[in-house]
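PROTOCOL LOG
Step 1. Enter all chains and additional molecules of the complex.
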Amino acid sequence: MICQKCGAKLENVITDFPFKIRDNSIVIIKGLPILQCQNCNEYLIEDPIMEKIDVILDRIDITAELEILNFVA
Ligand SMILES: [Zn+2]
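Step 2. Run joint prediction.
Step 3. Record the structure below.
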């Protein structure tokens, strides 16, 4: 897979990734597999992963400003 911005190679990395789900609420998903550009820090989340994230974010009822979850594939 190649970076859409600069054409460099994307590498699979496991990272902790923040998602803003409301104005004041951020969910950090730990252990998320993403593709990250080694050149410009552009990243890509693959569709099957994104679908799981959607399910996770749908399911949580966040009342705190910050919630930290583990990604389970
Ligand atoms: Zn790039």
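Step 4. Note key features.
The mean pLDDT is 92.
DSSP finds one helix and four strands in the chain.
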